[in-house]
Amino acid sequence: MRVIGPEDLEVAAQAIEDGGLVVVPTRRWYMVCADASNARACDDIITGKRRPSGKPLAYVATSTASCEERFILSPEAGRLAAAFWPGDLALLLPWKNPEDTAQFAAVGSPALVTIAPGILGDLASTVKVPLAATTANISGDAGPNDPGPAITLDQVHAFLAVSGLEPDFIVDGGVCPAVNHLTIVDCFTPEARLVRTGLIHQRAISAALDTEIRTA
Question: What pTM value is reported for the model?
């Protein structure tokens, strides 16, 4: 594997198109990325992370327009997308076409969809295949001394050593400063529900919807 800079995303994108894995930084933490339609590559990530099979990877869309090509956005989902994308929000959304549920099994149904700022968003826009991503850490509760997802290159390497994953490239983004999750809102149900709070506060979600959001 090679460590590259953000200016070299074209070679990272080519690696993903060829079925490989790439690790990129966000302001939250480092993420492992693959072609969302490549079942083998996605399964490698899930296995390496020891991730429960029912816990999907995130689908990184490039724009709200591209998102609407594949997913159904309710009025509430549209308001949240307009307020917070690109940003630290993921929405659980239904697929438009049933065939996509099988093609993108690692992303799940409903799909966990985000539009990312920064390097992750740039990679999604550069690569010619749909992008799946997840945090660079072993899933589950690893105990009180577990630092959580990797926020430095050294922590990325430590995770890779434990997981056995061998990405083609790691994009060096320095230290990830926010150290927090995406906020997740379920827009698959008739009424939007807050699944997990993260960098975007519950009050901000409620303000964008102009109503108090309930928790799932």
Answer: 0.95
